[in-house]
Amino acid sequence: MPRVARSPSHAGSWYEQEGAKLQQQIEGWLAKAQASGPVAGPGARAIIAPHAGYSYCGHVMAHAYQHIDPDSVRRVFLLGPSHHLASRSCLLSSAQEYTTPLGALRIDQQVYAELEATGAFGRMPLDADEAEHSLELHTPYIAQLLRGRQFSLVPIMVGALSTDGEASAGGLLAPYLADPGNLFIISSDFCHWGRRFRYTFTNKEQGPIWRSVQWLDELGMRAIEQGDPAAFTSYLATYQNTICGRHPIAVLLQMLAHSSLKFKIVFNYYDQSSKAISSSDSSVSYATAVMTPL
Question: 19-39 pLDDT, tens per residue?
Fold first, then answer.
């Protein structure tokens, strides 16, 4: 039976489709991120990074990926939100591999079987998988960083879970934190501000709109850094910030709550697609965080 491969459907529009040029871009972003300050301490066990077009956030992603130790990674869990497929559960790919302009990434069918056996993980159709960008936009970075190494991929589309659903998914994934060869990548942008996003919350005390947006995002970052799912849930209930990967982030926090291991989460970079100054403007925020063991 031929292998089912998910094609890089957003290559050529959201990011460079020619492999050599894409590799050069990613290497350049990583070099600039590394030049901004030395990476010290243990390698990341999880990162949070955005999934917009690379012209907007490719440079931001590097500030998370530079903290990964490629030699220690044997398996990559990639969790991203659903922008198109309506679902209230976690969904697995129907493919056996994700193809990228930098090579194919093999999906870990053994872990998929373990997750399906819980009854809490369904399957998404291949067309829905290829329509979604939140997972795909991370695959070139993964392929580049882990080039020449043996590893497998565990892509999971996280639907609009309830708080109980987030806790359940976190509890099921938490045991995988025990293996230091497992890396978790959480795909999320931050505030989507403007009328086109139906979100225009503004704290006028902060001055220009873009500063209000940054203030709002930083409140969310501090809540996530607490490592407490309830703190993040309370923040979202208060401000309704349009963090598209809020459910994958909440699942990560629930994993920490269900694990006997201790980790810290630190945000290390922030940017916006543009600096909104009037009500007719819009912007999307991008932030990166690194989770390391204590």
Answer: 999 999 999 999 999 998 767
